Amino acid sequence: MRKSFILLAIGIVAMLCGCGKERKVYSKGDPDADLQQCIKYSEKKQFEEAIECLEVFKSRFPGSEHGQTAELRIGDAYFRKKDYLLAADSYVTFTKLHPNHPQADYAYYRLGVVRVELRERHI
Q: For the chain, what is the mean pLDDT?
């Protein structure tokens, strides 16, 4: 009985230790440099890293110009990853949230490009 309890306790501790995923810190303290770092991930075709970095950045600067730029770049990262449905969703969300943003036209254009890609793939 005592051995099984000890084994159970060790198993639970081992599972709890394995649950924590180490998260990267994407902040250098300068919003412009932080945003550029996120964009560099996308340029290096590290799309998951780029999207995670941009999501963290967006949550740190909600409603700011930097946060809005991050929202738009999330759509770009999904597009480059060829995840067209998520890219389309990102662009639609951006245009709904920021219809008067200076880059709203860009978001509409990218949404059109996504729709062409989806039509060619018959999705």
A: 83
Look-up: residue for tokens 């051995």? 3
**10 vs 73, which has greater pLDDT?**
73
Task: State the DSSP string of the chain.
Answer: -HHHHHHHHHHHHHHHHHHPPPPPP---S-HHHHHHHHHHHHHTT-HHHHHHHHHHHHHHSTTSHHHHHHHHHHHHHHHHTT-HHHHHHHHHHHHHH-TTSTTHHHHHHHHHHHHHHHHHTT-
pTM value is 0.74
pLDDT over 70 at 36, yes or no = yes
Written as six digits, the tokens of 61 are 């600067």
**CA 13, CA 50: separation in Å to the nearest integer?**
33
Do residues 61 and 53 touch, judged by C-beta distance below 8 A?
A: no
What pLDDT does residue 7 have? 46
